[in-house]
Amino acid sequence: MTGPEKRIQSSISILTSNGIPVSSNYSEKLIKDSFGKLPTRLQSKIAKAIDEMATAFVYYGDKNGDTLARTYSDYNIIRFFKTAFDPTVKDPTLLHELLHNFQASIENRTGEKDYGIDYITTNHLIDWSENNFEDWQIDYLKNLMGQLKNGEGLTKDWKILVYDQVRHNPKYIDYICYQISKDEKARVALKNSREVYDELFVAKTLAQLNITRKIPEYRSKLPEVEKRLETLINDAVLKSGVASLNRSKLLSSLGVKKYLLMAN
Fold first, then answer.
1. What digits encode the pLDDT tens for the residues 141-177?
2. In sequence order, what DSSP letters do the residues of the chain get, joined into one string?
């Protein structure tokens, strides 16, 4: 592990509900999957943000379904389930959940979504003025837009988009964000669908990182994507806050002693 990765590992301090730390091998896996390809500068900034935002991490054992983690964004608490530590799972779970926390900190529980809508609908990586997809792909993406505008929420198709296609076909995310930027009805629908809004915010960053890492013609844009992530982290730290009483109650409801879980 790099020096910054080790600092992240010491900062996250993932503990079980009875206060026992999980194996360092588990936390190392989460860190490698999420931050292994980021430059050390960004790794260091993330480690510092975890400290400054007093983010708490809880290992909560088994859960039915395929959930890897859950974020209590308002209180900077991230709960991991057993599946997150499965060696066959390579999702950027920790980065995904931290992005939710960063977004929530910026919006400061006000319910306003202007920052997030602007983040989602600007800075597209690809020139979509030309048709870059086959007809069947366009039909698939039109169907997703239709579900959004119809107010159907985080449907099965949308879950596949933001959780799976973000890795396998990250261009789809960039295209959807571009289409929303041009369609006022879609923008309003996105504001009104909290789950889609939250997950698309995270997917935007993850998709752009994947596009610039994996597709040679966009590799030169990686620095600007990393710069936007750095700005997002700075904004989150600046506006972060923890509602101490409610945070204490939430940690207690999880069966965790809060003083054991504060970041170093």
1. 999 999 999 999 999 999 999 999 999 999 999 999 9
2. --HHHHHHHHHH--EETTSPBPPHHHHHHHHHHHHTTS-HHHHHHHHHHHHHTT-EEEE----SSS--EEEEGGGTEEEE-GGGG-TT----HHHHHHHHHHHHHHHTTS---HHHHHHHHS--SS-TTS--S-HHHHHHHHHHHHHHHTT--S-HHHHIIIIIIHHH-THHHHHHHHHHHH-HHHHHHHHH-HHHHHHHHHHHHHHHHHHHHH-GGGGGGHHHHHHHHHHHHHHHHHH----HHHHHHHHHHTT--HHHHS--
What is the rounded distance in angstroms from the CA atom of residue 139 to the CA atom of residue 175?
Answer: 13
Name which residue leads in pLDDT, 187 or 52.
Answer: 187
Give pLDDT tens digits for 88-146.
Answer: 888 899 999 999 999 988 887 666 788 999 999 999 999 888 767 999 999 999 999 99
Which residues is 13 bridged to in the sheet? none
- The Cα-based distances of 154 to 97, 146, 224, 236, 253 in angstroms read 17, 12, 29, 25, 27
Query: Is the distance from CB of 120 to CB of 232 less than 8 angstroms?
Result: no
d(CA 130, CA 76): 41
* Among candidate residues 41, 153, 162, the one with its CA nearest the CA of residue 99: 162
Mean pLDDT of 68-92: 84
Return the pLDDT at 54: 83
